[in-house]
Amino acid sequence: MIFPLIIGVGSAKSGTGKTTFIEHFIQFIKRLKNQIVIVAVKYSKTSQFMNIITDNEIIEESGKDTARMKRAGADYVYWIRASEEELAKVSHKLREEILSNFSEDDKNRMIVILEGNSLVRFMHADVIIFLKGNSIEQVKPSGKAILDLADIVIEKDYVMEEIMSEIEKIEQKKLIGNLLKERSNDGKITCSEARKIAEELRIPYIEVGRMANELKIKIKKCELGCF
Asked: Within 10 Å of residue 152's Cβ, how many Cβ atoms?
C-alpha cells in the first residue's frame, strides 16, 4: 500500500450507508494494521461561511456522523462546512492543513477517508468508492459525477477483505500507469525503463506490460522478451 492514501466515499443519494461503510472500513483497518493513522473527513453543504471544524466537543456530539467516525477508531476527524462555490478553496486549505500538521512518519502510514460526493471530486481521491444502493433508484446529479469516476461500485452487500484487496490493486495499477507516463516519450518507453518500474514496485514484468498496453505505450528495444 502506498501512503498517504486518499479514499473517497460517495453515494447515489442520502441514506445509502456512506457513514456505516466508513465505520466498518475504519474498524477493519484498525484490526488489520493498528499503526495506520486514519483521518476521516465529513462534508456538509451549507450556505453559511465555510469552516473546518476539529473541536472534539463538536466532532463527538451525539448523533453526528463525525462522532460515529471517531468512535469507529479514526485518529483525527475533520468536519467541513462550505457551499459548493467555496469547496475548491476549502479543499485546498484542508490539504495544506493535513500536510503541515502531520509528521512525515504519520503521512507515511496515513489513510484519509472522505465522505461526500463534492468533496471527493475536489480532493482528487486516489481510490473512489461509490455506494449505489438499489440500482433502480435515481442517482442525484452529484452522485452521477462520482459514479462516472468510481473505481469500486457497491450495490448490495460487501466483504471488507475483498474491498481492501481491490483498493490495493487499483492503487498499484494507477501507480504503474503514472510511472509509465512519466518515463515514456512520444508514447514509447525502453524495455530497461519498463523493467526498472517492475523492479522498483516488486511486481512481475507482465503487470507493467499490461498497463503499457492499456495506455497504448509501446515498449521498445526489448532485449529479453519480458514484455
From this structure: 17
Query: What are the phi and psi torsion angles at 3 (to 5°)?
Result: -115, 155
Give the pLDDT of residue 154: 94
Query: What local confidence, expressed as pLDDT, does residue 34 receive?
Result: 83
CA distances from 14 to 18, 44, 147, 178 (A): 8, 12, 14, 34
Q: Give yes or no for a contact between 99 and 73, defined as CB atoms under 8 angstroms apart.
A: no
Q: Is the pLDDT of residue 221 over 90?
A: no
**How many C-alpha atoms does 100 have within 13 Å on its Cβ side?**
6
| Last residue of one domain, picked from the residues 118, 135, 158 | 158
E strands, 12-104, where? 37-45, 51-53, 76-82
Q: What is the pLDDT of residues 74-94, one digit of tens each?
A: 999 999 999 989 999 999 999
pLDDT of residue 142: 84
Chain centre distance of CA 202 = 22
φ/ψ (deg, to 5) at 154: -110, 125
| H/E stretch holding 98 | helix 87-101
Range of the domain at 204: 171-220
Looking at the structure, tell me whether residues 29 and 136 fall in a common domain.
Answer: yes
Q: Do 98 and 201 fall into the same domain?
A: no
Looking at the structure, do residues 188 and 134 belong to the same domain, yes or no?
no
